[in-house]
Amino acid sequence: MVLLRNRKPGRIATLEEYKASGGYKALERALRELSPGDVCAMVLESGLQGRGGAGFPAGRKWMGIAPDAPKPRYLIANADEMEPGTFKDRVLLHADPHQVLEGMLIAGYAVGASQGIIFVRPAYGRIAEILEREVELARRANLVGPNILSSGFSMDIKVHRSGGRYICGEGTAQINAIMGLRPHPRETPPRTTEKGLWSLPTLLHNVETLACVPHIIANGPEWFKGLSRSPSGSGTKLYCVSGAVSRPGCYELPMGTPLREIIYQHGGGLRQGRHLKACLPGGASTRFLSPEELDVEMDFEGLRRIGNRLGTGAVIVLDDRTCMVKATLNLIRFFSRESCGWCTPCREGLNFARELLERLEEGSASFDYPEILRETARGLCNAYCPLAPGAAQPLESLLDLFAEEVMDHIKKGGCPMKQPGQQRG
Amino acid sequence: MPRLTIDGQVIEVPPGTKVIDAAEALGIVIPRLCYHPALGPAGACRLCAVSFLDGPVKGVLMSCSIEARDGMVVSTEHPEAVSFRKQVIEWLMMNHPHDCPVCDEGGHCLLQEVTVASGHCRRRYPGPKRTFVDQDLGPFVQQEMNRCIHCWRCRRFYQDYAGYRDFGALGIGWRTYFGRATSGVLESPFSGNLVDICPTGALTDKPSRFMARRWDVERAPSLCIHCSLGCNVTVSAHLREIVQVEARYNGDVNGHFICDRGRYGFDYANHPLRPRSPAVMGEETSWSKAIAQAVAGIEEVTRAHGPKAIGVVSSERASLEAMVTLSLLCEETGWEGPAFFQDEETLVKNRLLAQVALSHGIAGLREVEKADLILIVGTDPICEAPLLALAIRQAWRRGAWVGALDPRPIELPLTFEQSGLWDEELKKALLKGAQREEGLEEVLPGWKEALDRSREIVVILGPTVVDISSLRRCGEFVSKLGKKARIFPVFRGPNSLAASALSRESTFRSLARKIREGKIKALLLVEADPFHGTKMRGELEASIRSLELTIVIDYLPSEVVKRAHILIPSATIYEGGGSFINQEGRLQRASPVHRGGIPLRRNLQGNLRPPRTFAKGPPGETAKSSWQVLLELGERIGKGLGIEDKEDIWKVARERFPFLWQVEPGGRISWEGGGVQEEAMEEEEDPSQSSQEMRVLLVTSTFAGEELSQYSSKLDPVRNEARAFFNEEVASQRGLRRGDRIWIRMGDVRVPFSVKTSPKVPSKLLILDPGNEGLWREVREVSKTIGWTEIERA
What is the assigned CATH class of domain B687-793? Predict the structure, then answer.
């Protein structure tokens, strides 16, 4: 265990405890021994990929901020965790907030940022309080603020409470939100590393990504790479297992751990007498996985190979008593509600899909619905930002993998799972 | 220069061109809803999707967001792109109500157009249509949110382009709502553009609501004559009534937008009291009798007192045709005039401003938008030339620095420096500016830095609050700035520049003097109302009363019309058209929109219709353009000008006034100013220097004070109350606070004002904006100074 090594039931690891476990050593090392370029190079070499869902190599993102780029520069830690099934950031910040702060400081040092912002989901109000308190403690310990550890490097950290919308988790939308604008995503280029917050270079990372950074600096990129079980991955990953399993929870496992192991060994398998019907491997914006694909290595490359995405690594397990139409409807309702309203496919298309799925589920659908749904899903992929294409993933895989179940809904005039005599789990 | 292929045609476009524009250059119009040339790409509607088959990007992508690059192969007709575009239409029509028959946008609706083009006709969406509760957005814009297709144009215009915050997007997802936090009048004086910019019927024109179907109106390209900018408009008339004015694109002048004064000021043409038939001594009469009376009157006065006993007055709102005809007629007859300006000072200021601007390189709205340093001297853009404020904002959005020297508390939708200077202080500041580069830094912090990095400077200069020597000083100051500086003159009227160029020495004041001296016995007023904005009402009334003959040719129910011995109605720009020279010297022509006549009342009751008499034309349409009337008068008194029609006027004018007419319409005139007497006008001593009194500065506001729009009932709901601006400190010493009501005594009239305070107002100045205060018209003389004894709390 790397990221959750200081995890304790019911409370956070204090600054002292974090320091005792070797915390802030990496920061000290970076500030005293390494140049910003060295830090960037180490992170690039470690193969660290963004944990927020896209899996973009962190080092390459850092290199996107040129040494002569304008200042001040900003660093944003994205703790606006709202992807359905995902709760790793909450666990991580509740376990060891200083780990994220140290990651931010090192990253800030590497890219020359003078202001760090932690963007916290409003439902995580307690975390915001903890972070504010711990930032203050770190400031008193000369770990945050001016002239950190007498190194000449200065960086402040602020906690920003989000207004609370799924779209605020998207990087460019988040930056707009911090600036007090409507949280609309913006098209890139220019990337946020060139023009981000207040049009200045901004590095934006998921908090899990930043939590990995101190360990890379402390133990070296090779060590970090070696943590992974698969050759294409690196480090460990916080997998969130939820749904029809015996032991749902957040598990820190080597990157590339096979899905079967995550569900059956760590998640405790399905509940008594149930069978796996499908699962979402990385939150709501990924395709449904069929039981045949369970041996996939859970890293970015592994899932890409089978046409899926690791996303946030949130495994949502669905058992044989789950109606797939209803499950999809549930997801589409979420996406339709959370659309920012900017572009037509997302705003109208998702609503269209929702209406159709609702009628499928109630039993007033007609035979052309699957075709219309498929067209809609295809059209969603031409949206402005990744929200609607993400929403299209479960919808498309419903039609691919569970076409028969969908047809059953039409033929039987409603959800077959709801037939008399059969109970919902 | 990127070369790309669109639908098999190769085109080379300047770097940075979007694919949608490159296609348009080839004549391929890719459907779009959210994209607007002035607002830039948004990528919101997704309707401009095309297939990129080869090149740096591939797949179905939005042509509005992608810049043309070398080697792109684009297909607008690829089945994938076409089917996606159809899908977008289907999505948009999911919730769009099919209320086209009662929708005012019907017939010129972009959504209707693209929907028909897409062939969308079958509804597959099974759900209920989304509905919203509408808001009352004030007198101009009718909201119908159910029709909204969420293209975001309104919000992008209102907040980003125009810079006002009270209207925007609320809520998210499919419930996104475009409106205000609560119902209320839109704060922006550019709100009417929302109507033009909305691609469907979500925001429509409230004053013309349900008045006409689009295909039934008479439309023609026209000009806005409510300030000196000369914005291009399209005017719609229906059943003898002007119903709507819309912005007409002219890249050299107004771009895509106009202000609300220009959009809703047209109603003077429909005024119920508008003179519709000739009248002699207040009695309606026939056209021929009125002319005969006028001729007889003129001949009688000429016989008794000579031609110099006839004074001729026109104004800055008269068309160039009228001005030219009048000038020629005066030359031919020896009449006194024509006077286009109120007094000598105004005339000299206008000529000087024209001369200073023309000799330093005159700037128009486009130059303002491109400038990186803008200095406003003695102009309140929102009040005097509203669209100028939008142009300044566009420059500011690109990083321009904006500073203002004006005693009024100017409001602009942008951040700028202002110093409330006036008179001597202003002169001193300009002198310092002319002497040293950093001279203005003292009064406008940031000036020096802005000047150092500036490449294109525009100095906006108006003649209303700046005196003659300051205007001249400003010219010197701009010379000092060098070639990168231009002057943007703001005149009062739509044809002020032409009036300056055609003016001789006569002004209305000089004619009035001659009336008092008994030298002038008759007055011919052509589209002029000396009572408008006068400070000397008492004197004016006496002068007019003492005349033997007053002939008025006008279309406004003005005060001087009521006092006319002989009244001959003239046609407005909507019926007669006309040429005007705007503030940058651009000659522009307006086409006639309709024949005119008394508007039909359409309230389904029938009893307000005009009487059913048999006539050759519709009732009330006898009005002719003033130049036609003048020609007829000239003919009848034996001073024919040999002019038959407009073409003849232009031919004659080209010979006689080459500086005005050597350009084709749309071009800038080549006049270089001139005719300004070198010796400065005698400057009046500052009377407030020695006393406790405050000097009075009379100003106008956006919707009150401009002559034509004063008569437009459409603007009544937004006209401001009378306001008195005090220096904040001075006011507080006297116990006055913002919003207090006061009376100011002027002669035997007490006029109510609402107190406004600002630290920018100089302490010895009282700025009065009469707004729509009716009592103001009773004031016989506006004093130059006002003491505190004349001010009392209401």
Answer: mainly beta
Shared domain for A272 and A173, answered yes or no, is no
Q: What share of chain B has pLDDT > 90, as a percent?
A: 77
For residue B723, what is the enclosing H or E element? strand B723-727
Mind listing the pLDDT tens digit for each residue in B77-96? 999 999 999 999 999 999 99
- Is the Cβ of B176 closer than 8 Å to some Cβ of chain A? yes
Whether A344 sits inside 8 A of B65 (CB atoms) is: no
**Cross-chain residue pair B172–A375, CB shorter than 8 Å:** no
Q: CATH assignment of B3-92, given 1.10.220.10, 3.10.20.740, 3.20.20.140, 3.40.718.10?
A: 3.10.20.740
CATH superfamily of B346-497: Dimethylsulfoxide Reductase, domain 2 (3.40.228.10)
Whether residues A104 and A160 share a domain: the answer is: yes
pLDDT band per the 50, 70, 90 thresholds, residue B621: confident
Q: Do B46 and A359 touch (CB under 8 A)?
A: no
Q: Is A188 on the interface with B (CB under 8 A)?
A: no
| Structural domain boundaries enclosing A408 | 324-418
The token pair that represents B706 in the structure block: 């401009």
Residue A108 lies in a domain: yes
Determine whether the interchain pair A356/B45 forms a contact, defined as Cβ–Cβ distance below 8 Å: no
A372 and A277 in a single domain? The answer is no
CATH number of the domain to which A250 belongs: 3.10.20.600
The yes-or-no verdict on residue B682 having pLDDT over 70 is no
Question: What CA dihedral angle connects B149, B153, B154 and B159, to 10 degrees?
Answer: 140
Q: Mean of the pLDDT values across residues A242-270?
A: 95
- How many Å separate Cα B730 from the centre of its chain? 35
Give pLDDT tens digits for B561-570.
999 999 999 9
Residues A288 and A331 in one domain: no
* C-alpha Rg value of chain A to the nearest Å: 22
SS3 A114: strand
The answer to whether A352 contacts chain B (CB < 8 Å) is yes
A8: in domain: no
CB nearest A355 (choices: B44, B126, B171): B126
Q: Which long-range contacts (CB under 8 A, 24 or more apart) does A53-61 make?
A: A53/A83, A53/A206, A53/A282, A53/A283, A53/A285, A53/A309, A53/A310, A53/A311, A53/A312, A55/A300, A55/A309, A55/A310, A58/A205, A58/A209, A58/A213, A61/A193, A61/A203, A61/A205
Distance from CA of B650 to the nearest CA of A (A): 53
Are A137 and A200 contained in the same domain? Answer: yes
Q: What average pLDDT does chain A have? A: 94
Whole-number Cα distances in Å, B162 to B148, B246, B326: 21, 17, 41
